[in-house]
Amino acid sequence: MKMKTINPCLIPLCGTALLVAMAAAPLAITGCASQQVTTTAYQTEATTDAAVTTAMSAWGAYVAAYHPSASEELQVQTAFNAYKQAELAAIDATAAYANAAGSNSVAQAQSETTALNAATQSLTDLLNLAAEFESTTNH
Amino acid sequence: MNPAMLQLVLFGIEEVIQQAPALAADLQKIFANGTPTAADFAALRAKVAAENYQQFVPNSQLPTA
Lengths: 139, 65
Known about the structure:
The complex is a heterodimer of chains A (139) and B (65).
Chain A lengths: L1 E3 L6 H14 L9 H33 L3 H30 L5 H28 L3 E3 L1
Antiparallel strand pairs in A: 1-2
Helix pairs in contact in A: 1-2, 1-4, 2-3, 2-4, 3-4
Chain B lengths: L2 H29 L6 H13 L2 H4 L9
């Protein structure tokens, strides 16, 4: 009989950072001054990256200690690569918004929010996936 | 709680304790940065672009890309 339980090394460590990132993202479409939008978006993206770095470092330690299967590793790698692409798109969108000097700012802010939400969702998927690969015990 | 699960829980707690100071320092630096400049965006993009799975998981069974 196999039993799976939650991996504690990821959820508490990254949960706070993820909540900060998700709370900050919606501010991008409230019509705030462009500078505030840019700052908030940058902080969201940098926080997301810090959270992922921490989560992936913990996953690396878990792999070294418990040797999950290659298929489980492949799923985490796929999720990580998806997050990375979404994060790069979010950073590019924010940088483009910051350089646009207010032209068509509403549409660009919405585009930026879409990219930020995609990066945040990818992070959530990555954390959920890594938390799903816990120790299994055979009885 | 069986011994294997207890071992995993203790491992997880140890990882959290080890990673927390570095994460806290990173978060403090991010929120103390003020208005980001083009150089800040470029640095963040370069950092993310350079990250790869093998960097974080040196004991991976997966083939190196």
